[in-house]
Design brief:
seven-stranded parallel sheet; Rossmann fold; Dihydrodipicolinate Reductase, domain 2; seven-stranded mixed sheet
């Protein structure tokens, strides 16, 4: 049986491990904490308690495994990806790091490694869907991705709770946004171009620019492309206030002789507010629209996704959609269905119909509602 290493035992890493354990021998590696011990009892996976902040430890740890999943927070995601690639291991990455993954393409090719990056929801499943839709067209004109993971009952002042690293959530509010306008890549501020969206079955949400296109800006020639995050109305204004007044700054400041990063303090204060308590529910919604030309005619392809917390397992929806997408891609990698060497963006998976259908059917079989077709 193939040996799989999942780096990171948070909600997403745990879900990936749970799903992969049906087919493989899975080991979750993370620093010592109560969560990884719970994983052993709950899902029957192996666990290793290690501090993986040292690249040498990461390299040594992954030696014995056939493939690796990087489910660490984005702040160490690129460093981990680089280390695993240099170790010569096939891998999927689901961390949300700011660096350009293609800078590691030459190393991955030289090491004969297939490293599939951005394997989550958006980026990830969104790229796969856009890749598939674009493959049906002779020319891709406009791409719009709307996605959000939200608490079912927003009971705090920020109307939000986070199923994954608070630092990665805050990154969505501060990282400059790359999008495509009139065939040119442009950079806009995060939280910009706020608009109100009506989602069937959900109601009114607000949408704002975030940096979720990722590899699409390098791989897909389209006239216009944008990715926006969905939140309950009023959330963006509060995040904008915190950002503009310095609460998200990463530069050290002196507070009565103590050097602190405002971002670290803010994250520490927000985490209790954003933490899902036992029994709380969330939902994930995604709307993707791709417009282009097919057989000389203007066409439109749309995918809609909706998912809620799984009552049976208690798994939060955003962790489910993220984790199950990653697990599906990892299975294809192990089976040799994705065999291109180098850095592989998820949209290239979507451009192959049989691989796209595999991911979609895997998600549907796990209770995730997906509708797609021509507009």
């Amino acid at each position: 049986m193939k040996q799989i290493c999942v780096l990171g035992g948070g909600r997403v890493g745990s879900t990936i491990a749970f799903d992969l354990s049906k087919n493989f021998e899975v080991t979750v590696v993370d620093k010592e904490n109560k969560n990884i011990k719970i994983l052993e009892k709950r899902f029957g996976v192996k666990t290793l308690a290690k501090d993986l902040s040292d690249s040498k430890v990461v390299s040594k740890t992954v030696e014995e495994f056939d493939a690796v999943v990087d489910a660490f927070p984005g702040e160490i995601g690129y460093k981990t990806l680089k280390t695993v690639v240099e170790a010569g291991k096939q891998m999927c990455d689901v961390s949300f790091f700011p660096e350009n993954p293609f800078t590691l393409d030459d190393v991955a090719r030289r090491k004969q490694v297939t490293a599939i990056v951005d394997c989550g929801v958006a980026p990830g499943l969104s790229n796969i869907a856009v890749g598939y839709a674009s493959s049906l067209m002779e020319k891709t004109e406009n791409v719009k991705i709307l996605v959000g993971g939200l608490p079912k009952n927003p009971d705090n002042i920020l109307k939000y709770k986070a199923p994954f690293s608070p630092a990665d959530v805050i990154e969505e509010y501060i990282r400059p946004v790359k999008c495509v306008r009139n065939n040119r890549v442009v950079t806009l501020p995060a939280l910009s171009e706020l608009e109100t969206i009506e989602i069937p079955g959900v109601g009114k949400l607000e949408a704002f620019n975030t940096d979720g296109l990722r590899t699409l800006i390098h791989t897909l020639p389209a006239k216009n492309m944008v990715e926006k995050t969905l939140r309950y109305p009023g959330h963006a204004e509060k995040m904008f206030f915190l950002r503009e007044t310095g609460f998200f700054n990463k530069t050290l400041v002196d507070v009565e002789g103590v050097k602190v990063k405002p971002l670290d303090v803010t994250a520490a204060l927000l985490f209790p507010l954003w933490r899902f308590e036992e029994g709380e529910r969330d939902f994930t919604v995604m709307e993707i629209t791709v417009e282009g030309v097919k057989d000389g005619e203007n066409v439109c392809y749309k995918l809609s996704l909706f998912d809620e917390t799984d009552d049976e397992t208690g798994m939060l929806s955003m962790a489910r959609v993220t984790g199950y997408t990653t697990a599906s891609i990892l299975r294809m990698l192990i089976k040799g269905l994705v065999n291109k060497k180098g850095i592989v963006p998820p949209e290239q998976i979507g451009m192959k119909k049989e691989l796209y259908k595999t991911v979609i059917e895997d998600l549907k079989s796990r209770g995730i509602k997906i509708e797609e077709g021509w507009c």
